[in-house]
Automatic annotation (TrEMBL):
This is Putative variant cofactor biosynthesis B12-binding domain/radical SAM domain protein 1. InterPro entries: BchE-like, BzaD-like, Cobalamin-bd, Elp3/MiaA/NifB-like_rSAM, Methyltransferase_Class_B, rSAM, rSAM_horseshoe, rSAM_sf. Keywords: Iron, Iron-sulfur, Metal-binding, S-adenosyl-L-methionine. GO terms for molecular function: 4 iron, 4 sulfur cluster binding; catalytic activity; cobalamin binding; metal ion binding. Its cofactor is [4Fe-4S] cluster.
Length: 442
């Protein structure tokens, strides 16, 4: 069967940071092994997204189309949504190729499968969750009721099969990048690496705002460290790729897994750089030294709460001391550190602003001598379905049954609504003065 997999728009414009669609390529690799003729199309690379899609559909004329919705909105306090271009994409496919089945999937779709299929009758099928095994099974004609996570229509209803089983890395196929050559993604971004590597899936943490456990499960499924480095070495040798982002929810859990990967990188003498999101409370001086030596180019942290109360409300299972210690450990390196925080967290008051400023000051003081604080990123909390934050927002009357979470909705009570902007002024001043080496005057 001739199958076209399409990455729907997942950034606002061609000027935004884009990433190689590793999930879609992984699914394509499994389809190829099953004997299908597979091609891929990433709309995010096109200056004329819909004109290019028009040409691609009419030139390919596939037997089936898989459409991935990775993000429902750009997050980061944006009020724009990625649902409108997704809807236009679906309608355009149906108008140009009326007889071709459309199968939707991706992380964004997984959060709202029934809703999206009810509003878009053009979509015939969907896959909730991991699609590497489900999509080949659907195209092979397996009984619909037996396909994990399959979304299907029954008269006027949408039926979603439970995701009864998680993708095992025993079935893992290294994504065949020849299906979507990486060359066009090289050097495309100014900040974030465009190329992701999976070392594991799943997250046992239960942060109050996060949907990773819904998307990947609560059990960590790890690849063998040597196989991860095999993939890195192949990408370096075959495509000349040198800069990677580890896609894991948290890269340094479970303890020991990342360390084995780093040691294998060093053993093979690979000259690569990498980034990932780190858990603060399992860092040690020895581990930080190993990470830097093996190519870590940025320590990404997401403590989220400025105060102990906020950390507790967000269910981070961290102490403020853990965050400070992580800063102290990484500040002695030649690697940038970036910290992500939430503002106007449930329970925060006007006094919380001064406490948050104190934490920002502390981070700049710790990193100041080597000027290796890349950024302090401030966000409000995007309310996602099925999370404790959604329950809190409902209990407080911030949202109700009429609130549509498919579109951008943030937890930001009016009493402290300007907290992020006030902290942005303080943080940006500190950042600019640090990089420009200007002494602050009080």
């Amino acid at each position: 069967m001739k199958v076209l997999l399409i990455q729907a728009p997942s950034v606002e414009s061609a000027t935004n940071e884009r990433v190689y669609p590793i999930g879609l390529v992984s699914v394509a690799t499994h389809l190829k092994r099953a004997g299908h003729d597979v091609s891929l199309f990433d709309m995010n690379l096109q200056s004329d997204q819909f004109g290019s899609l028009n040409a691609k559909l009419l030139s390919e004329r596939p037997d089936a189309i898989g459409l991935a919705l990775r993000n429902i909105d750009p997050l980061a306090n944006k009020t724009s949504s990625l649902i409108p271009p997704f809807v236009v994409t679906v309608r355009m496919i149906r108008a140009l190729l009326p007889g071709v089945p459309i199968i939707a999937g991706g992380t964004g779709f997984t959060l709202f499968p029934e809703r999206i299929m009810r509003e878009l009758p053009e979509i015939g099928w969907g896959i909730k969750g991991e699609a590497e095994l489900g999509l080949p099974a659907l195209l092979a004609g397996s009984p619909p009721g037996e396909i994990s996570g399959l979304c299907r229509r029954l008269n006027e209803d949408v039926i979603v099969n439970p995701a009864a089983s998680l993708y095992s890395f025993d079935d893992y196929l290294v994504p065949d990048r020849d299906l979507l050559p990486p060359d066009i993604y090289k050097g495309i971004n100014s900040y974030a690496p465009a190329f992701g590597i999976e070392t594991k899936r799943g997250c046992p943490l239960q942060c109050a705002y996060c949907v990773y456990p819904q998307l990947q499960g609560k059990v960590m499924r790890c690849r063998k460290p040597a196989e991860v480095v095999d993939e890195i070495a192949m990408l370096n040798r075959k495509y000349g790729l040198t800069d990677f982002h580890f896609n894991d929810p948290v890269i340094n859990m479970p303890v020991g897994h990342l360390e084995e990967i780093c040691e294998e990188i060093l053993r093979r003498g690979l000259k690569v750089t990498w980034t990932g999101f780190f858990r603060e409370d399992v860092l040690t001086k020895e581990k930080v030294r190993l990470y830097e030596k093996s190519g870590c180019s940025c320590f990404l942290f997401s403590p989220d709460g400025f105060t102990q109360n906020s950390l507790d409300v967000l269910q981070k299972k961290l102490d403020v001391a853990d965050v400070v210690k992580a800063a102290e450990l990484t500040s002695g390196t030649d690697v940038l550190s970036v910290y992500h925080f939430m503002t106007n967290v449930p329970g925060e008051t006007c006094e919380s602003i001064s406490q948050a400023k104190s934490m920002i000051d502390r981070l700049y003081k710790i990193h100041g001598p080597k000027r290796n604080l890349g950024a302090v990123v401030l966000n409000n909390i995007r309310i996602m379905p099925g999370t404790p934050i959604e329950a809190i927002a409902r209990a407080e009357g911030e949202i109700d049954d009429s609130t549509d979470l498919l579109y951008p909705v943030y937890y930001n009570p009016s009493k402290n609504q300007t907290m992020r902007y006030r902290l942005e002024i303080h943080n940006t001043t500190k950042n600019v003065f640090m990089w420009q080496q200007i002494g602050e005057r009080r």
